[in-house]
Amino acid sequence: MAEEQHQEVHRSLKTRHLSMIALGGSIGTGLFVASGSAISTAGPGGALLAYVGIGIMVYFLMTSLGEMATYLPVSGSFSTYATRFVDPALGFAMGWNYWFNWAITLAVDISTAAIVMQFWLPSVPGWVFSLVALILIFTINALSVRSFGETEYWLSLIKVVTVLIFLVVGVLTIFGIMGGHATGLTNFAYKKAPFVGGIPTILSVFVVAGFSFQGTELIGITAGESATPEKSIPKAIKQVFWRILLFYILAIFVIAAIIPYTSKDLLGSSATDIAISPFTLVFRRAGLAAAASVMNAVILTSVLSAANSGMYASTRMLYSLSLQGYAPKTFGRVNRRGIPIVALLGTTVIGLLTFLSSLFGERIYIFLVSASGLTGFIAWLGIAISHLRFRQAFVKQGHQLSELRYHAKWFPFGPWFAFLLCVIVIIGQDLHSFATLDWQAIGITYMSIPLFIILYAYYKIRYRTKVIPLDKVDLTKTHHDD
C-alpha cells in the first residue's frame, strides 16, 4: 500500500482553493488589459453581448465537466474522459494538445512578467526577471499541491479585491461622486454605440472573450487532487459562474460608461500597454494618482498566477497522459510529496526553451504562440462531445440519472450550445484573411487545427482505434489505467 500511495497525487485541495483557482484562472490580462480592445472594436453593446454569450457557454461547459468530474475525479480529466467515453485517439490528441497549450502559455507569461517588471526597473535586462519568475513558479509547484493551492488562493484574492475596488470606484465615477463630473450612460449612445460594426466585429470579440475565460476548465484538472470532489466541484462551479458574470459584465459596463469606445487608449491589448489599461484609466479618472503603479502590481500578480496555474495544469496533464500510456512511463512518477516531479521538470524545460526562442528566434516564438492559440477552444469542444457521449452511454447501460451526484443543467442544450458556439468562434477567428485570401495569416491563425488533426490521425492509424460503442463505454468508477 505504501508503494501505491507513493505513486499517487495527494488529495489536499480544499473547496476554497478550487473556487479561487477557477476564478483566478479566468481573471487575468484578458480582463485587465484586453477588455478595452473589445469595447473599441465592437462598441459597449457588442462587447457586453460577446462576454455574456461566452460567459453562458462557459457555464454550461463547467456543468458538463462538473457532472463528469464528480462521477470520475481524475487528474488531467478531459483527456481521460475523451479516451473513455468517445475514442482513445481523441483523448490522446486532446491531452497532448492541452499540455502543449499550457507549456507555451507558461513561456508567454514569464515573458510578460519581465515586461511588467521593467515598468519599475527599466535598466535590468528582461530575461533576469523571467528567469526569477520561472524558478519561483517551479519551486511553488515542486513543494506540494497545498503550496500551489495556497499561492493561487492568495494571488487570486488580490485580483478579486482589485476588481471589486474598481467596480466601486467606477460606479462612483459614473455618478460624479469621484472624479468631478458624472458621465452617466451617455457613452452607450455615443456616435455608433452601443453596437459598432455589426455581426462580424461582434464575432471577432467573441474570440477575445473566449481567451479571457480560458482557464476556467482548470476545475476539471484539480478534481483529482481535491479532498472532497463531490462537494467542492459543484460548489466551485456555481460560485465561479456568478462571479465571472458579475466581474466581467460589470467591469466592461463600467469601462464602457466612463471611456468612449472611440478612445485611442482602449486599443492596448498586451502588458506593455499597462499605462493605458482601462483599469488604470478609470482609477486615474477618479483622481487616484498612483493608479498606474498599483495596477501594474496587480497585473504582475495576475501574470504570475496564470503562469502558476499553467505550470500546474500542464504538469498534471502530462502525468495523466503517462498513466493512460500516451506518454513515457517516467512522467507518471510521483515523489513522496505527491508531486509528479518528472512531468514538472519536463514542462519547465519546454517553457524555458520556448522562452529562449523569444530571445533568439522571434519567428519560432510567434509560431509557437499562434500554434497554441485555438487549443483552449478545441479542449472545450472535446468536453462538450465527451459529456454528450457520457450521458448517452450512462442511460444506454441502464443507469438511472439519480445515481449522479451532480447534474449538468439543461442537458442536452448545454453541451450542444457550447459545441456550436465553439465551432462558430473557431471558424470566425479570422474571416478577414479568408476574404482577402491571405494564406500566411490563415496559416498562423488556424495552425492549432491541423496540429490537432495530425495528433488524432497518428493515434487512430497507428492503433486502429474506433469510436467506442455506447454499450461498451467503461463507466466503472475504480478504474486505473495501467
UniProtKB/TrEMBL annotation:
The keyword NAD does not apply. It is found in: Membrane. Keywords: Amino-acid transport, Membrane, Transmembrane, Transmembrane helix, Transport. One of its GO terms (molecular function) is amino acid transmembrane transporter activity. It comes from the Bacteria. It is a multi-pass membrane protein. It holds the Pfam family AA_permease. Gene3D superfamilies: Amino acid/polyamine transporter I (1.20.1740.10). Residues 17-466 form the Amino acid permease/ SLC12A domain. The chain crosses the membrane at residues 20-39, 99-121, 127-145, 157-178, 198-219, 240-262, 282-307, 339-358, 364-390, 410-427, 439-459. InterPro entries: AA-permease/SLC12A_dom, Amino_acid_permease_CS, APC_YAT. GO terms for cellular component: membrane. PANTHER family: AMINO ACID PERMEASE, GENERAL AMINO-ACID PERMEASE GAP1. This is Lysine transport protein. The lineage of its organism: Bacteria, Bacillati, Bacillota, Bacilli, Lactobacillales.
